[in-house]
Amino acid sequence: MSEHSGLDYSGKVVLVTGGTKGIGAGIARCFLAAGARVIVCGRTAPEQLPDVGEARADFLAADVRDQAALEGLFDTVRREYGRLDVLVNNAGGSPSADAASASPRFHEGVIRLNLIAPLNVAQQANQLMQAQPQGGCIVFIGSISGLRASPGTAAYGAAKAGVLALVQSLAAEWAPKVRVVAISPGLVRTERSHLHYGDEAGMAAVSAGIPAGRMAEPDDIGNACLYIASPLAGYASGCNLLLHGGGERPAYLAVAQPAAN
User: 45 lies in a domain?
Assistant: First the structure.
């Protein structure tokens, strides 16, 4: 039993796509702390796999955009682990780009990684879970970008909006054996945050605009995954859990408040 989460995943098998770094690694660590056997996948093996104490994630190489690689990944899970209780569909992301000048190939690649690939991953997981007496749970990692304007990452925001629609449809199609849910983080502090927000001063300024007073940590997302994939959330399906620390302070406040003084 994990004292950190209060949830026991002993004997459960969990797959986290893109689980070798950033949010994915945080999710993997949370499931490890809860006693799960955790598999992470990515294109290349990391220098260090997510670990908690003596527990360490297993790595399987797979590019989620490659259908043959996906089929091989799930064949390995089926053969070597015998079951899959939770899939966390996390792999994704996008560099910043001006929508007016980015190439069609760029936009297609972003949508392929963030919408088409997660659908294909979920399809493979569903096939395995439907054959299990206990079924399973598929958690899509969405983004606040799918719910508000996403300047600089327009195709990414559109793909994440598509993920939310996809979750509702898959939940309806694959119920009752497989629950399908989404978690949509706001701003998360990872090892790559400086690429978006600059130095510590920049990240502090961003954090000041969040009611919670800070950006999320990967463990915040991981703990939410522990909950929503657990029996405690057994009636949650087709839903989206927002994790944005209260959102963003409306821009008009910065203008209206000084004017009132």
Answer: yes
Cβ count near 259 (within 10 Å): 7
Kindly tell me if the per-residue pLDDT of 257 is higher than 90: no
- CB-CB neighbours of 100 under 10 Å: 6
Q: How many domains does the chain fold into?
A: 1
Question: Which residues make Cβ contacts (< 8 Å) with residue 120, sequence separation at least 6?
Answer: 64, 67, 70
Convert 215-244 to b/e letters by CB count within 10 Å (16 or more is b): bbebbbbbbbbbbbbbeebeebbbbbbbbb
State pTM to two decimals. Answer: 0.91
Secondary structure class of 232 (helix, strand, coil): helix
Average pLDDT over residues 157-173: 98
The pLDDT tens digits of the residues spanning 132-160 come to 999 999 999 999 999 999 999 999 999 99
> Residue 46 burial (CB < 10 Å; 0-12/13-18/19+)?
middle
**CATH code of the domain containing 134:** 3.40.50.720
Q: How far is CA 137 from the centre of its chain?
A: 14
Q: Tokens for 238?
A: 């087709």
Respond yes or no: is residue 156 known to be catalytic: yes
CB distance 12 to 36 below 8 Å: yes
Look up the domain containing 217 and give its range. 13-260
Determine which one of 156, 197, 227, 235 is catalytic. 156
More confident site: 26 or 194: 26
- Six-digit token string for 190: 């990872």
